[in-house]
Amino acid sequence: MNWTRRHVLDTDDWSRDEIDTVLDQTRAMTEILHRPIRRAPPLRGRTVILFFAEASTRTRVSFELAAKALSADVTNITASGSSVEKGESLYDTVRTLQALGGDVVVMRHASSGAPYFVAERTDAAVINAGDGWHAHPTQGLLDAYTLRDALGDLDGKRVVIVGDVMHSRVARSDINTLIPLGARVTLSGPPTLIPTAWRCGQLPPGVTYESDLDRAVEGADAVIALRLQRERQESGLLPSLREYSRVWGLTSDRVARMRPGAPVMHPGPMNEGVEIDAAVAHGSQSLIEKQVTNGVAVRMALLYLLAGAGAPAPVEERV
Amino acid sequence: MLAADDVRRAITRIAHEIVERDRDLTLLAIVGIRARGDALAARIQSAIRANEGVDVPLGAIDITLYRDDLTRIGYAPVVRESEIPFSVDGRVVVLVDDVLFTGRTIRAAMDALVDYGRPRAIRLAVLVDRGHRELPIRADFVGKNVPTAAGDDVRVHLAEVDGRDEVEVVTKVPA
After folding, report:
1. What are the extents of the domains in chain B?
2. A128 in any annotated domain
3. Are A35 and B116 spatial neighbours (Cβ–Cβ below 8 Å)?
4. Mean pLDDT, range A61-89, rounded to an integer
5. Cβ B75–A309 below 8 Å, yes or no?
6. Which residues lie across from B61 on neighbouring strands?
7. What pLDDT does residue A169 have?
């Protein structure tokens, strides 16, 4: 298919074709990362601005490696130590980004919708690297890629997502990517951390909620454990971390209930011993390190596709 | 221009020429340029196996990311996976493509190849050389030299991709 999207803000309106295109291009990019020289030239002379107004290490580094592997110039604007901390408004930052002349802006922001605000006010292509509770599209795509790589066609496969679904942009983006690929999703987690409408049965097509994690993982094809933010306990949504870990933690016993060999994933960073046991996180079924490697390849694919988007389709392709 | 039998004979001849040029088959590797050079490369490899009883390493390379017109064409052409399942260091690598035209594809392929290491030598085998070079590049092994006008279209069909073997030249009729 011919790629036409200018931005990657959310995958909630993506077609199956678009998701397949990104995943197919990701496979080609993965090969580059295994070469002796992990660099190809397609983004030579392009500038990628990483604008992270919320703490992040792995996503920012992942984007940076992806941009560099495609020979782009990379520059960073982080929240701490920048004018953002001095009270500069998002609008002022956008004007600065525009004046700097970046071709692609990769941004993370604590407010849902912030990337949309930026996309409307700059000429650059914008990639959402996580906005509030809303979306984390590149995480959804890399999880889908990792699962497809491990399981083959995802049609009819059942993926359990367990944890703090309510505050999780990862859960939402995973659902938006996995469902169009034909997978079914079972959500599990404390009722206080599941969006009310979903808990009450008004779920998106293909998604179910099962409060009992032991039942949810029974025969499942894969499980994704979400990070538990400790402040959820402080705000009274959880009785204690110990209880959370006992009822909702991913233990070896629970992994044993899944289909034999079923992969275990986590978007990181992990609280080992809370949402996932160390034995599971580092066990043979864990794809957590694969997720990190695949994340770079997915971001390379998106940077490549966006850098070429926006112009009319060619009449004829000849080298 | 070339019928199925001509294609078959050209490949057999190129296979012989490659072996005669570099007698030490242990150093040889064959790398096809996607999408049709890889099919030709596989055929050359099996011709060498039939003649010499030796399996030379076979690879396929996609040059999309190395095109010199990526920033000009304004869209993102599909990148296919490269497969070089051996070290190119110290090897004589024969690049294989269907048609040699401007030479830009070959320039891109050489740039891609050296990202995998330092070959002892890179050689070039093509089924058809149609002229009109824009870069100082020539082929070491040519199936057939075909004089064309710059606007002509040389279409190579291969059984693996197109269901049949044939090379045709479509002349553009001036409007």
Report:
1. 4-170
2. yes
3. yes
4. 82
5. yes
6. B33
7. 95
Using the Cβ of B78 and the Cβ atoms of chain A, whether some distance falls under 8 Å is answered with yes
How would residue A311 be classed by pLDDT, with cut points 50, 70 and 90?
A: very low
Q: Across the interface, which of A28, A45, A70 has its CB nearest the CB of B80?
A: A28
**Side chain identity, residue A215:** R
In chain B, which residue's Cα lies nearest the Cα of A301? Answer: B79
Is B157 in the A-facing interface, judged by CB distances under 8 Å? Answer: no
Please report whether residue A319 resides in a domain: no
Residues near B97 by beta carbon (within 8 Å), at least 6 away in sequence = B32, B33, B36, B37, B40, B105, B106, B109, B124, B125, B126, B127
Both tokens of residue A28? 């080609």
Say yes or no to pLDDT of B137 above 50: yes
> B71 touching A, CB under 8 A?
yes
What CATH architecture does domain B4-170 belong to?
3-Layer(aba) Sandwich (3.40)
Rounded to whole angstroms, the Cα distance separating B133 from B146 reads: 13
Confidence of residue A168 (pLDDT cuts 50, 70, 90): very high
Cβ–Cβ below 8 Å for A28 and B67: no
Quick one: A84 and A152 in the same domain?
no
Overall average pLDDT of the A65-82 stretch: 86
- Assign A313 a pLDDT band (cuts: 50, 70, 90): very low
Same domain as A147, residue A110: no
Q: Are both A177 and A222 inside the same structural domain?
A: yes
The Cα-based distances of A109 to A169, A227, A270 in angstroms read 12, 18, 21
**Residue A302's domain spans which residues?**
16-136+293-308
Same domain for A204 and A264, yes or no, is yes
| Structure confidence at residue B130 (pLDDT) | 96
Q: Which residue of A has its CA nearest to B64?
A: A42
Q: Are A258 and A167 within one domain?
A: yes
Count of domains for chain A: 2
CATH number of domain containing A180: 3.40.50.1370
- pLDDT value at position A312? 44
- State ipTM: 0.86
